[in-house]
Amino acid sequence: MDKMNMHTKNKADENYKKLAELFPNAVTETIDPTTGEVVRAIDKDVLMQEINTKVVEGNEERYQFTWPDKKKSVLLANAPINKTLRPCRKESVDFDHTGNLYIEGDNLEVLKLLQETYLGKIKMIYIDPPYNTGNDFVYEDDFAQSTKEYFDNSGQFDEEGNRLVKNLDSNGRFHTDWLNMLYPRLKLSKDLLSDDGVIFISINDMEVTNAKKICDNIYGESNFVADLIWANKEGGGSSDSKLFRIKHEHIICYAKRIELVNIKGVAISNAERYSKSDEYENERGTYYLQKLGMGSIQYSQSLDYPIKTPDGTFVMPSDNNGGRRACWRWSREKYERNKKRGFVDIKKDSKGVWTVYTKQYMKCDNEGNPIDRTQRPMGIIEGFSSTQAAKLLEYIGMGSCFSYSKPVELIKWLISRLELSEDIVLDFFSGSATTAHALMQFNTEKGKHCKFVLAQVPENTDEKGTAYKAGYKNICEIGKERIRRAGRKIKEDAGLTAPADLDIGFRCLRLDESNMKPVYYTPDEVGQQDLFSLVDNVKEDRTPEDLLFQVMLDLGVLLSSPIEVKEIAGKKVFNVADGFLLACFDHDVTEETVKAIAQMKPYYAVFRDSSMANDSVATNFDQIFETYSPETVRKVL
After folding, report:
1. DSSP-assigned states of every residue in 171-201
2. How much is the pTM?
3. H or E element: which one contains 75?
4. Per-residue pLDDT tens for 533-545?
5. Among 271, 419, 463, 552, which lies 20 to 30 A Cα-Cα from 329?
6. Are 341 and 278 in contact (CB under 8 A)?
7. Are 566 and 575 in contact (CB under 8 A)?
């Protein structure tokens, strides 16, 4: 049995492995000048030969985007953590059946925990990060001090542990602090995107340039999709600028691999003209009529031929052109072919003249080939205002509980630009949970089965504000209640048209310290006098379900996977994802339980290190699995 890591991977180690795979001849060793130990290294000269391009060194001039602490920001993104996500059933809705997640905690640490499980699985990310306005930041990542030193010295934590630091434009680090906050989070989130995925970032004029530079740095300039302008204000505009009334915000969009991304078009402006229907509607769509004749300026004798009408008479192109010389748009051969296929309609006009029309269908051309009658969406998004967002919150009974939330219709418009069906949408600056609201509404209207993953730090609400007085002590409480109410309202409004399998639930998970005691990670530091108290390496206040979710994170099992609890020989066994993972964290596990689990042939089987009933069970454990399920990967805590 292998012991589980129970902490996130070191991203620097992962990057080193990738480089070593590409250029194994560049891998070497050297002496660390600080410790004197032999450490891994990359031979720069060999690497330069392999990539056959110039490597910039020292103070040599080059194009770059940097700021104070950028290197430490990169290190912060790569550094591993030993934390976990604990399930909160009471805060959840339909915990056992939903595919949606709501995660409470600092999103930097949440994104690290999601790296193994959601690597390459997110189709769309939408975030609305804190704008750099000189107000409090609720995300402050220290680079110069240890965690303990920072806690002791800063004094800038509230009772809940939220990191609150004023980012005033007079502090000399106005842009630096904001960049240090955003960069590591975007860097981590990129790995979660699928190859055909995109990220949308709402931002205002103050930092849009720096936000684009960060994304150029992380995604590459070639993967820039668009800087969308959202006309967000009704009326006079805001006072963000001293010289202009600003009535817009930006939504910058980047792709993981732009060549794989398909942005869906919007309906053409004259779509309403396709108003007629016939027996071909299911395959061809609706249609409108267009005269087959055209003016003499494009006259061709081969296109000037008689067409037989329903009463047996014949009509010439000139008859449909007021007697002036004219011709048809189609050749005689094409006309005869398309008439048989139902693309022609001949009827009298208002003057009683037989007129030949072609049917211009919405879904196909006149040869029956599928056609996309949409147009690329405009880079200026109009019709969705902040006022709409406020009214919708009032509609679900949460008016004035959250300021500056984005309109649901805006987020739904962005979601609709992608080919989504059963995909995952991530928002790690969740705020009032507009993204969840929009996705549930999208699923209802389009019959889709997309899932959301939301993350939000539990920032305290203002004690003088409406939200606090309404009982919401932090933003997470607002977000969760918004999802509950929005889901009920969406289902109620849809009535009988609501999909039977509409998912309006969510699993609530909360960021916390690891379930494991320190001895699990640093066994060498445990003294003889401590051994008796540390026989069990799991913290006393943790439940088996707590352990299960940390195991799922460590093994890369989706946190929304179905979980079934079974009792085998008197022991509780978790069956995750229809037998993919079987886990038992009870004590005194007998051979009967081990044998039953092995016979179910899971991909993973996980137990506590100290869970076996006796030495005989521990000794026979591997032999039992070798007999019944040798392919099962066995792990212990």
Report:
1. SS-HHHHHHHHHHHHHHHHHHHEEEEEEEEE
2. 0.78
3. helix 70-78
4. 445 789 999 999 9
5. 271
6. no
7. yes
